[in-house]
Amino acid sequence: MTYDTKLGIEENKVAALSYVGLWVSGIILLLIEKENRFVRFHAMQSVLVFLPLSLLVFFIAWVPYVGWVLADFIGFPAMFLVVLFAFMAYRGMKFKIPFIGRYAYRFIYG
Fold first, then answer.
1. What's the pTM?
2. Residue from 35, 47, 45 nearest 5 by CA
């Protein structure tokens, strides 16, 4: 059973989109989608995972001589996470990422 969203797209597709745009799409979907908790949960989880990860990669890249190499070693696995999380959300799964998923769940479902 699928539910519609404010965008007029099925909720599993919108939840997958919340991961594809990293934390930016998560924030946008949190602002747009006010009623669908499935989409809001995945959007919040996306923000809580990818915003700190993006900041970490950004600051590590500033380390002289080896920063860009270290940032790549963090950034490439992060792209795998994007694909994995988007695929799981598209399948309609409400999975909780360890540690972070608990906070996202509490924030959305109260």
1. 0.89
2. 35
